[in-house]
Amino acid sequence: MKSTSLSLIAGAVALAAVTGFAAVNVPDGTATTTAKPAARLPVERSSLLCPAPGLSDLAETEYTSFTPAAKSGDAPGPAGTAELLSSTAAGAAGKSKDKKTKKADPDKPVVLLKAPGKPATAEASGADAPALIGTATGLLAPGWTAQQTTTVEAGDGRGLLGVSCTAPDTGFWFPAASTAKSREDYVHLTNPDDTAAVADIELYGPDGTLKSDVGEGITVPARSGVRVLISTLTSKAVDDVTVHVTTRTGRVGAVVRAADDESGSDWLSASAEPASTLVLPGIPADATSVRLVAFAPGDDDADLTVKLLGKTGAISPAGHEDLHVKSRMTAGVDLKDLTRGEPGSLLLTPSDGKATPVVAALRVVRGKGDKREVGYIPATGPVGARATVADNRAKGSVLSLTAPGAAGTVEVTASAGSRGGTPVSKTYQVAAGATVAVIPPVPAGLKGTYALTVRTRSGGPVHAARTLMVPMDGIPMFTVQTLPDDRGTVEVPAAEQDLSVLDD
After folding, report:
1. DSSP-assigned letters across all residues of 285-310
2. I need a labelling partner for 355 at 20 to 30 A (CA). Which of 170, 307, 451, 469 fits?
3. Could you read off the pLDDT of 126-155 as tens digits, one per residue?
């Protein structure tokens, strides 16, 4: 073959490897065109970061790591690993649930997941437990999730605090934080990489930016975590604050620990990315107080229609049908006990037809008087192809499913237990504009904890949240975790060439 022909074909192959498309002219002038649509393939690596759970010597923390089992017929791949490691050598998390307490080795996994389909668990005690840095590869990477659940029975920060460990990123939005005197809110930043990250924290109140120089250029050392008390970043005490975390260099995991003098504490996870329509699923039926906090990060004000998606469909909360959010100003509204004994979800849509991006979160209280407990629900995306939440117990879990548009059908699978049990699945139908709250299926013969995996089977998008309830001394302790799509697959361009080889 002539060298010019070889060069032409080599160039076409390189193009096909990038785009999945090649058009090749062979020496006789014949053109052969091949194209193949991009394929969705399982991710080969996942990263998760769990914040340091401490601040109280009474804190008892449980970690659960889980990857859904592969579907029948999926191509086999490398087994891989899934490890959660201590971010620091000192104060490493403590013990496996089924083994005697021992000092942790910073190079040894705090939680080691060995196979898909069965959770792995560990425990930590006290205020010195560090942030955890995790990586999953091979078959353990697609859909890998980790849950951190902390119980503080009394004193500062009392409550049940739950958080799904976060993937590292360069930007996060947290509506529903506060710098009020009754609150003690910390931003936890965790750096998974081998070089330092530099982050900025911006605060926005009802009147706009809360100016501060202290929130700029915060260094997060390599493979380490730091926490920042947000009330030290400004001199203003404000009830409703939106926190914006960005990085100048590197990436971090970010989450806010919000504590109230009267109603306990919980983790506030980041809102979904700014969008003109938002869904906040999983308001408990017995909520005694619900506060909506929203923020418009762009140059335009946002006018929103507020709908409660209940058991029988969508209704407008009396007196709170609309919400005006000024540009770069935080808006908060007290919706009180809007669910009135029935589970529900909130849907925010543009009321003027103008698609203005916003972020939002709910501050939810259960109980009354000195027996109140707080939890947070950020706006979240649909479960999509698949979403998972770990650390479910034999009792105390409630799964909320809501279909903001067309009706949808999902399949819910309860995994094997961490110490025994057989998986079980059940299908649920969700009517258009409604919320269904169910006691999820429990593995047969359950021992330990288990994971719930939700898959969309038909119809419109479904949003989901899991409420975990652990009552203690008359206090209805609870925490809510949303279930966005786990992004366990990625679109990969496919290359296919039909290259004719002609003799010289």
Report:
1. TTEEEEEEEEEB-SSS-EEEEEEEE-
2. 170
3. 988 999 999 999 999 999 999 999 999 988
